[in-house]
Amino acid sequence: MSTKQPRRLSTPVAVGAYVLCAALAGGLVVGNAYATKYSDLISVYLDQPTQKVVSADGTDAEYFTSGFTSDEDRQAHLAGVGTRISAGGITLLENDGSLPLAGGARISVFGQDAVDPVYGGGGAGSVDTSKAVTLEQSFADAGFEVNPTLWDFYESGAGKDYRKTTPDVYGEGAFAVNEVPQGVYTDEVRASFADYADAAVVVLGRSGGESKDLVATGDAGDGTYLQLTADERDLLAAVTDDFDTVVVLLNTQNPVELGFLEEYPVSAALWVGSFGQTGAAAVGQVLTGAVNPSGALVDTYAYDSTSAPSIANLGSYDLTNSEVDRGNKYMVYAEGVYVGYRYYETRYEDAVLGAAGVGDFDYATAVQYPFGYGLSYTTFDWSDYAVTEGDDAFEVAVTVTNSGDVAGRDVVQVYLQQPYTDVDREHGVEKPAVELAGYAKTGSLEPGASETVTVEVPRELMKSYDADGAGTYVVDAGDHYLAAGTDAHVALNNILAAKGLTTADGMDADGDAAFAWSTTVDALDATTYAVSAETGAPVTNQFDDVDLRTYDEGFTYLSRSDWTGTWPTTYADGAWEAPDALLADLDIPDVEDPDAEMPATGTVSEEYGELSAATLVGEPYDSPSWDALLDQMTVTELDELTRIGGYATKRVDSIQLPATVDKDGPAGISDTLVGGQGGMGYPPAIVLASSWDDALAEEFGAAIGEDSLDLGVAGWYGPAANIHRSPYSGRNFEYYSEDSVLSGAMSAAVVEGAQSKGVLVFMKHFALNDQETDRIGLATFADEQAVRQLYLAPFEMAVRDGGARGMMASMNRLGATWSGAHAGLMTGALRDEWGFEGVVVTDQASFDVFAYEDLRAGLDAGTDLWLNTDATLWKLTDDQMTPSVVADMRRAAHNIGYAVTASNAMNGLAADSRLVAVTPPWKWALYAADVLVGLLLVGAVVLVTRKLVRQRRSGGGTPGGPRAATRVDAGAPAS
């Protein structure tokens, strides 16, 4: 009779078990290491707290509160804000009287974009479309009967296979339209048109996104992304053949070429922008006339979008001999100040005046819709133009009367012209023919009603930066004009009329001299604005190194003194062999100060005693009590506070400074990039700016604040205030305008609204981050006048007028120096000239690819906080933590602390409160998993080992060896 033997453990299986256990143990160690490195980010992603406030009974330390008693009311208000932003920004471009449509009209809606519209842009500015109001819902709510057969064709029929594409956040992929070809439409679909023929609504869409620009990314064979594709043209041809009334909705963000509106018999056209979550609701309201469109364009719409002088330098260009990491790409703003209307209007004036070098320029064939253009369902008459001159500002008054049949709102725009003198030509100072100086929007005026609006124009706007001559701001001698107009071109024509010119002199329309006023400056003034009005510090050149002429003395920027002779070309044909001086400057600088003294750390002031952050709420930035508070911080706390600031800031126990949660994006607090909870998604900045409504902008900021309070997200990576340098910049939707004053006024209003609710705003991207291609480390060159008057001006207004307490440094370089390490930007202009009191955070700095955003160089220049989620990254050795570095960290801690104590992160913290660390649930789950997996691994190792030991004892050999085999054979049946 045979005896069944226990199954033996072979050597390969035993070894495999040990290896598997070791691998799992190693994985556990690595997983815990990564969890520790990214602890703050994980907590943000899972929306789990890391701290709580313990206060004495009866303590009330709510510094910022919601304006609503119920979340239902709050959400309804926020949704309404989004709808009103769209309602205010929608711009009427053409109307033959077909709009508004009759109530209950039976309409056919065309274009795949109708069922898949643009709600926002890619990356930080994205919107959760699952919560968004659709155009179908908007049309239904407005009372329209929409052709269901056609709608289903796009949504679920053959048309569903055609959808636009956009790149991802890393720039991978293409912008493509992919409109439905006419051959795909079935006979059934075409037959449905007759029953829904009151109007055809054609929806055309264009998106934008982070990390990639639009140039040369059109559908195959169809030109650029801002031109109509062949399929779109076929669609318009078919629809205008089949319908008497055709309305085009431009669900676009960049200025698309719109010449087709004159090629096809289109009845009306509305720019509706992108929608956010609730903006689409306004589209139906506008089509019915329940809302009278009152928006105005924030960009110039040229017939040829590539006619802008910036186009010559928009792309990816190589420094062929640079081996510097992320330092081998460049961009030259060769157009200088002549961006958008500043180019088109100035060249027009020079053509009218017969200036030398103006070349063959015809405004009528160049510009279709000027900057500031927008129509209404009613008409307005202006009268009683008056300018009152004060010491610091001009007050411009205009009476607006509704001369039409329906209620509406109008925008009064005021433009400034400075004299272009021989001194300007000598020093290379450029003077656009007109520049926006201010604006005001009327209330809703009933037919026959009037309102006198007043626009305040700061006298300071008369200054220009003379980098090569005075080295500061100057006010030129000569005549300075202020003119009101419905757009930039009308205002310029009014100035030309005041100069005595008419259509006989080459103007495309006669202006009205009654809406222009001038004042004469007797002598050049190089002293009034040579010192900061905010700080009294001297205003001198800060950006010589950003000017390309530092490395190429013979370079010339575009100048109105010779348009044709200075017209930009792609610098160095896109392949520049950089001079040695530039190559040297691209390297990370050594900023060590050998004379620096180690600041006090870890000590309590005898004078003030132990302080907490809560005791300094409302304390002035320069109060000596801040020094006493900062003395309490340890070197480790200084290091971690400045170094680890990605989507959250660290809690500082020694001073009881709370941690914060910080999130994107400019269209609303978003969960797209780092999870957690998100708030309302609003129409993007370009739509808000198109409303020309500062009060609405402030209300939007306050709405961001409401979500900030509700979500516990104190820091907001927004608003964004870069300039639409080119029609093809990928992120134009996220920025306000091609104009600096409009961008600055909007930014200041949004900041005021958000900070009224305790939001820590981070104005971005500071600065010259006006294209997405190669933005990581891109060496960007521009002259100082353009840098200051165009690209920095919105940020300056946000600080000086809006009181912004946060900035975000851009990824690119200014000249050869990363923006965050550029002392002229971060300290010279921002703090010394503008009087900024607050914190500067980097853009993304969590990966090795951002090594050029050097910690020591950035701290030395004035940057405070690294948007870094890796607790091990940027860690300096003990030897590197020199007095120079620690002193810089202490200054940064002051800026961070000041900004945080002014935010709603302090809610609940009184002087007698204590912050207590909280272990978030995910860490408890990790600990439990560690214990469980650890026990399982130990158990597995013990079991395998015991098995092996027993086998050895019972058989005297190793598993699977000769003696074991003999034992098995001995127990086998005899033959």
Give your account of this protein's structure.
It is a single chain. It is built from 26 helices and 33 strands. It has 975 residues and is α/β, with parallel strands linked by helices. A hairpin with a 3-residue loop joins strand 12 and strand 13. Helix 1 runs antiparallel to helix 25 and helix 3 runs antiparallel to helix 19. The two termini are 13 Å apart. 53% of the residues are buried.
Per DSSP, the total helix count is 26
What is the CA-CA span between the terminal residues? 13 Å
**Which structural category fits the helices and strands?**
alpha/beta
Mean pLDDT, all residues:
94
Low-confidence sequence ranges? 957-975
What sort of overall outline do the alpha carbons produce when their principal axes are compared? globular
Biggest sheet, in brief? 6 strands, mixed
Strand content: 15-25%
Write down how many β-strands occur, each being a DSSP E stretch of 2 or more residues.
33
C-alpha Rg (nearest Å): 32 Å
**Helix fraction by DSSP (H/I, runs of at least 4):** 25-40%
Strand order of the largest sheet: 2-7-6-5-3-4
Structure at a glance:
With 975 residues, this protein is of the alpha/beta class. The longest helix has 35 residues, at 921-955.
Name some characteristics of this structure.
six-stranded mixed β-sheet, single chain, 975 residues, 31% helix, globular, alpha/beta
